[in-house]
């Protein structure tokens, strides 16, 4: 797995920042270090692919990258020749089903893990990069053939992780309780709760928490713990 060049964002929009702005430095470092000039964008998580592409293109083009939408050509051919892949947010179930329907899961996995092309994921694009989408916050509005993700990393992520508000009168389960319930299953593993503005940078066998704030680490059989920005999490790989 030494070929990995991956940046996983909790979200693309963070309060006080423009689209992708909070992660601009890390995105540019990822792409420029790997001599990327053209980015293949996969907009499958939202219905209006052209509108989504235009949003991404308006930002990345200003940063010096050409952006191509996967829906503009043959998906497999475009992935096979991509310099870098960016999968954006939306509905995780819709996204994963589309990746399976187009026969892209194994292909993307191979290109990222064995050929080292950079992978940028945000929200749903981060969810599908992991072991499975079992810890997404999204509604299961379609049926992918499997919950198994791209498996670029050997754990799950909960993007947009939020903490319990002690002043709230809401009596439903907290996000932490939901994750702990998931980990009661024998096949469940590690989950990282990425708060807004948090990112994970994976380079080869190294992984570091980056971004604007701490995240929450859930290891089965242990109490959840806080992880600070710049923490080395390579041991989770």
TrEMBL record:
<comment type="function">
    <text>Hydrolyzes dipeptides containing N-terminal aspartate residues.</text>
</comment>
<keyword id="KW-0224">Dipeptidase</keyword>
<keyword id="KW-0645">Protease</keyword>
<keyword id="KW-0963">Cytoplasm</keyword>
<dbReference type="GO" id="GO:0005737">
    <property type="term" value="C:cytoplasm"/>
</dbReference>
<dbReference type="GO" id="GO:0008236">
    <property type="term" value="F:serine-type peptidase activity"/>
</dbReference>
<keyword id="KW-0720">Serine protease</keyword>
<keyword id="KW-0378">Hydrolase</keyword>
<protein>
    <recommendedName>
        <fullName>dipeptidase E</fullName>
        <ecNumber>3.4.13.21</ecNumber>
    </recommendedName>
</protein>
<dbReference type="GO" id="GO:0006508">
    <property type="term" value="P:proteolysis"/>
</dbReference>
<dbReference type="InterPro" id="IPR005320">
    <property type="entry name" value="Peptidase_S51"/>
</dbReference>
<comment type="similarity">
    <text>Belongs to the peptidase S51 family.</text>
</comment>
<dbReference type="GO" id="GO:0016805">
    <property type="term" value="F:dipeptidase activity"/>
</dbReference>
<dbReference type="InterPro" id="IPR029062">
    <property type="entry name" value="Class_I_gatase-like"/>
</dbReference>
<dbReference type="Pfam" id="PF03575">
    <property type="entry name" value="Peptidase_S51"/>
</dbReference>
